[in-house]
Each structure stands twice: as C-alpha cells, then as structure tokens.
Amino acid sequence: MTPAAYAQLGAMPLIMITGQKPIKKSKQGRFQIIDVVDMMRPITKWTRQIVNGNNIPSVIREAFRISREERPGAVHIELPEDIASEEVEDKIYPVHEIWRPYASNYGIMEAVNLINKAKQPLILIGAGANRYRVSKAATDLINKTGIPFFNTQMGKGVIDERHPLYMGTAALSDSDYVHTAINNSDLIINIGHDVIEKPPFFMELGDKIVIHVNFFPAQVDDVYFPQLNIIGDIATSLEYLTHHLDKNQGWNFSCFRSIKKEVDSHITKYFEDTRFPMLPQRLINIIRNAMPDDGILTLDNGMYKLWFARNYKAYMPNTLLLDNALATMGAGLPSAIAAKIVNPTRKVVTVAGDGGFMMNSQELETAVRLNLDLVIVILNDNGYGMIKWKQEGMKFDNYGLDFKNPDFILYAQAYGANGYRPNNDKEFQDIFTKALNSPGIHLIDLPIDYSMNNKLNKKLKEQANILKEEIASKKNEL
Hints:
Oligomer: single chain
CATH class of the largest domain: Alpha Beta
Strand content: 15-25%
Mean pLDDT: 91
Radius of gyration: 24 Å
CATH superfamily of the largest domain: Thiamin diphosphate (ThDP)-binding fold, Pyr/PP domains
Number of domains: 3
CATH topology of the largest domain: Rossmann fold
CATH architecture of the largest domain: 3-Layer(aba) Sandwich
Distance between the termini: 57 Å
Shape: globular
Number of strands: 15
Helix content: 25-40%
C-alpha cells in the first residue's frame, strides 16, 4: 500500500501485481480473502482483477500505457491463482509512443506579453519538469533570457544548480531567503508545478501573476491559482517561449542578485565546521565534494531532507532522489537499491535517519544478495528529529519521540554488510571516501547534531525579514 501511495503522489510509473485465492471455485471459503482491488482504488490510477487468462495481454498493455501517461502513477493488477494457471494465447500488444498535444499559439503569445511586461520575473522548476527534454529546454530559456530561477525539492537538478542564475530551493513554504526573492517578484513562470508537492510559496489575491506551464491544468487551491495555464508538452512550450523571448531591458534583477549573495553565504556558512557529532551542513559539504556529478543520492524522510534540499546542489536531473509528496519514512534504502539496479555504473549513496532506516532495514539483505555497491549513512540521534522540530515550533513538550537503536555495526555485519562508526570529522571523511570507492554494502553509523534546527523555525524568519527591509530601503533610495 505504501509504495502504491508513494508512486501515485510522486508521479512515478509503477506496475504492481498481486495474487489472490481462486475466484471460480474455492474449497477454503473466505479464508485469507480481502477486496484488494477496492483497497487499491483510492491510491492508484487504475486497478483491475483479471478474470480470464485471455485478457492478460490487453490488460498488461493498458496497465503500462496508463502508468506512463502524464501524470504518471501507480497501476495495480490482481491475478487469482486459478486464472494464473490457465493456458492462454501468446499475444503481445506493443505500447506505442504517445505524442502529447502542444499548447496553443494564442496561449504562448499571451505568456510572452505578460513576461515582457513584468519588471522582476522569476522561473520556478517543479517536479513535473524532471524530464530530460524539459531540462534542456528550461536551461535554454534561462540562458537566453537571463531570468533567475529557483526550484522545488522534487525539481532539484533539472537545471544544474551551479548556474549563476540559481536562487535556491524552496525547501520550506515561507520565510526562507528564497522567499524574499519570491515576494519581490511580480511574475513567476511555474514550470512543472504539482500541487501535491508541499507549496513552494503562497499566492495571495492581487499579489503577482503566475503562469502555469505543465502537461495538465493547475489544480486550484487556497494557495495556488495561476492566472494563465500553458497546457501541453512542457519542453515544446518552453521551446516556443524561448523563440519569442529575449533579454528585456525593462527587467530589473538587482534585488535578486543581492538576495543570491545572501543565499550563497548562508548555505555554505557551516560547511567547514568540524564539530562532532556532525552538523547536517557539514555532512552535505563532505558528500557533495566526494560525489561525482552524476552520482545519485537518495534520501529517506526526516529533518535532514530539508537541510539537503536547501544546501545540497544537484548538478543533473534525478541525482538527488527525495520525496516531497507522500514523504513517508522508509523510502531511502529501497530507493537506493532501485537506483543502483537501474544505474549499475554510477555511485549511489543513501542518507537516512535512524527512525526511517529501521522502517525498512531488512532490505539490507536484498542489497547484499544482489551484490550491489552502496553507501548507507544513518544519521543517529535516537529519536524522530523532524517531529521534535515540529513539537518545538508549536511550543509542545518533547513527547514520545525518543527510542533506543540496535548496534548498527553488528546489525550490518549480521546481513553480510560492512559497518563503521566514526568518532570525529576526519574519520568520517576517510570512511566515506573509502566506502564510496569500494565494492559491497557499507553502512556508516553517524552521530548527528540537530541543535541548529531551531534556526529554520525562529532565526531564519528574523534574518529573512532583515533582508526584506534592506531591499525595501534600497528601493526607496532609488
């Protein structure tokens, strides 16, 4: 159930096949029978029980078509025992490429007019833009127009975040440095935004113009109601916009440049802090420096996900795999296993909290059995750190969130993996570098210092307000 919901909300094509007791005739009554098809209905795009073996080829073909069609998602097929044993005709129905419709010329020109009239446009890269053609088209648009951009958590890496016009990631919904840029913008070109992702910003009536560029129309809610929808193949829409747009002398990005300096300084502030237990920012710096450009980092869900979303720069699409849709714990290690199977020659690392890792820690056996090369970094604080952060932010007592972990070194060894527990910054660097370049499964039990989490709750908002006042003052002087 959890993988189905994970894929459905995250727009990931997934085919799930489950078994069932015989449906034509059974000597066991209702033993072990529940209605799996109905259970799957709310969390899949399509669910179907096969009742005749001759329907298998067409059902399978339809399942693959539906799962891959925009918006991608989960599909479920139930195959009862007696149907599975039937002899069937050998038929294969190929799944042909679907050519997506293009946006109308009228809509494209309306977008061009709105963008040219704007004074401080911004580009937002969302989860739906995480397609290779879109990556190139969006990069071309930004390079030609010079419009700065930021992204959502699931839009990281669509455009190389070393780009000089990159403003940062909207890991929070409000009050981060990047939101100062958003608040100063009068128009946002929102490429591939999906409201299932946590909102990267809040719209208000009369606030700014938002152009929604996507495969499907915007789902309007209280915080997202774009004034213009450009619907069709995203890459093609961006190519048309790039053709009709040039750098505009009426645009003024001076305040965005000031904000970017603050963002870059803030993001790297603790990169060289060698205290131990380790700060998340320091961990991010070490991993980023060690990973090749195409190395894949997968994250479980916890407090560290926000730190990585804000501070880790992704250079290529799908090189930072995180979930900001269902955001369930336990996804980090399975995601890394899948990433390594699909990309056997690339470096793959997963970072998980101790709570999230223990949700699916038995998958160590899978990784070892498949002879994969993986590095697993467990951030050990003996508690559910993100909910502690939330309780603190809501001024609640710290309640019910502390637990004791097993000895992760012995745990890894029990599965046939390698286990390490560094005692200082230098030891971690040495262990991580060696593990990254060695075959096998390497689990690192790393003590983590979450004492700076409160900055995301308190001081960050204060600092962003100071920056906002400084920009307002400069505008008044002009």
